[in-house]
Design a protein that fits this description.
The protein is built from 14 helices and 12 strands. The chain is of the alpha/beta class. The chain folds into 2 domains: about 240 residues, Type I PLP-dependent aspartate aminotransferase-like (Major domain) (Aspartate Aminotransferase, domain 2); about 130 residues, Alpha-Beta Complex (Aspartate Aminotransferase, domain 1).
Length: about 375
């Protein structure tokens, strides 16, 4: 299937980057479980296939597939979401400045501040929902703006079009972590971003059985630099992982529809629940950036943040009582997950930062799966009783 196809999303999810195997007619892209490729003469090999760290046909199919879903010319697959993030940071050098969204996944915060921060890269954490504060954060040496929207775990929604436009005014690269939304719900490149990042471990894979990351870009120069970093660092996914994620994109549209439908039903139930102090969800009109979410997202996703009455004791009791909602880190799987960010996914974030962001002991994050929603609601009611 041609990459510039005008087919709709669900069709591209199944066909883009893939064709029946020419040797056998197999409809699924084979697992090319090989580390190297035979050359007909020194330096003469088929396409880019000389060594699987540089390129592998299974990974190529995956890269073309997800790139198509993000309306991108280029795609690069990595061994994890943070590996993909690290490749973007490697575009910079000592002395450069990064504007980092203040509310990001704990692993992203750790990577920027505790790993790359020690190599002379300056990092400013800024509330990117505050346009004035965002504009004021730019310096002469600002080279990268890193956005996460919706954010993890407080579900802030950043205006991608505004943020990307301001970054371009300052000749800075704008990168957007699109993990929570997926390409089914929003396409940051269409809104002006330079780079889109995914932890494909989450919704894109959706089966909790493979770890991976992805970068989608349109700019040829940025792509070439990132591809060189991918080759040189070697943080590429295993071929089985590529196959599993490629299998999963085929159902991404169906799964995301169900995630969103279930989340909306659960939100409507929890806003009235006596044990719940507050519900945060971009689809609620009470959400501070609801209008922005409506503008740039096709639906509001499967992630819900709730604040419980009773603090840590109430949260711990609930998390120990749930049965269908599995108490586990990660998100975006077919099964529903639930977790306590302050103790689990964001434990590496300094306590003062968590307090400033409102990530307190009463906060519980739900990743709503695709089970029957009535069963999920009953499970939550039992746990909150």
């Amino acid at each position: 299937m041609r990459e510039n196809s005008t087919h709709k999303f669900a069709t591209r999810a199944i066909h883009a980057g893939q064709a029946p195997d020419p040797a056998t007619g197999a409809i699924m892209t084979p697992i090319y479980q090989t580390s190297t490729f035979v050359q007909s003469s020194p330096g003469e090999f088929v396409e880019d296939y000389d060594y699987s760290r540089g390129a592998n046909p299974t990974r190529t199919a995956l890269q073309k597939n997800i790139a198509s879903l993000e309306n991108a010319r280029h795609g690069l697959a990595f061994s994890s979401g943070v590996a993909a993030t690290g490749a973007v940071i490697h575009l910079l050098k000592a002395g450069d400045h990064i504007i980092l969204c203040d509310d990001v996944y704990g692993g992203t915060n750790r990577l920027f501040n505790r790993v790359f921060g020690q190599f002379g890269i300056e990092i400013s954490m800024v509330d990117l929902t505050d346009e004035a504060a965002y504009r004021a954060a730019f310096k002469d040496n600002t080279k990268l703006v890193w956005i996460e929207t919706p954010t993890n775990p407080t579900l802030k929604v950043v205006d991608i079009e505004m943020a990307a436009s301001v970054a371009r005014e300052h000749d800075a690269i704008c990168a957007v972590d699109n993990t929570f939304a997926t390409p089914y719900l929003q396409n940051p490149l269409d809104l002006g971003a330079h780079i889109v990042c995914h932890s494909t471990t989450k919704y894109i894979n959706g089966h909790s059985d493979a770890i991976g990351g992805f970068l989608a870009v349109n700019d040829d120069e940025i792509h070439d630099k990132l591809k060189f970093i991918q080759l040189s660092e070697g943080a590429v996914p295993g071929i089985l992982e590529c196959f599993l994620v490629l299998r999963s994109t085929k159902t991404l549209a169906l799964r995301m529809e169900r995630h969103c439908q279930n989340a909306q039903r659960i939100v409507e139930h929890l806003v009235e629940h006596p044990a719940v102090d507050r519900v945060v969800y971009p689809g609620l009109e009470s959400h501070p950036q609801h209008a922005i979410a409506k503008k740039q997202m096709r639906d509001f996703g499967g992630m819900i943040t709730i604040f419980l009455k009773g603090g840590l004791d109430a949260a711990r009791t609930m998390l120990e009582r749930v049965e269908l909602f599995a108490l586990a880190e990660s998100l975006g799987g077919a099964e529903s997950l639930i977790e306590h960010p302050a103790i689990m996914t964001h434990a590496s974030v300094p306590a003062d930062q968590r307090a400033q962001l409102g990530i307190d002991d009463s906060l519980v994050r739900l990743s709503v799966g695709i089970e029957d929603v009535e069963d999920l609601i009953a499970d939550l009611d039992r746990a909150l009783a």
